[in-house]
Amino acid sequence: SCFTQKKDIFAENLFIMKKLFRIALLCAALVGALACFTSCSKDSLAINKLVGKWQVETMTLGGLPISIAEMEGVALYLTFHRDGTYLTEMIDKEDREVATGTWEYADGVLKMNVGEVETHATVSELTVSRLVITAESLDGEEPLTTTLTLKKVLK
User: Fold this and answer.
1) Cα-flanking dihedrals φ and ψ of residue 102, to 5°?
2) DSSP letter at 33?
3) Is residue 24 predicted with pLDDT exceeding 70?
4) CA–CA separation, 28 vs 15, rounded Å?
5) Structural contact between residues 101 and 113, judged by C-beta atoms closer than 8 angstroms
């Protein structure tokens, strides 16, 4: 039936979202580099822009674009705190997954740590309302490039 097909599609999208959430956690580890407050005014300005709560709008995973904003009942947030810690939240209709870590930012690179996993992401755009980061991770033996486009929802 149509309901069963929609339920199956939602379950498949939810599985993909949970995998993407884990990848986003790795990307969040890249943000850990921002806690490394440098004397460079350019980095200080970027850090000031980065601190706050960001909502992931779109994600490109290995060239496959995924619009999280269009997924009903699903949201992914990254919150960067001035003390160099961050919080990642994935919320769907059934669950809320949360992870914390540390972040640093310097010279256009966001370093995020979750436990012993460290991720480095290139910040290609950072304004007071928009953030675009790209990271490469190994999924098995193949490198997997992930790009996140986020909008700021809370300072």
Assistant:
1) -120, 160
2) B
3) no
4) 20
5) yes
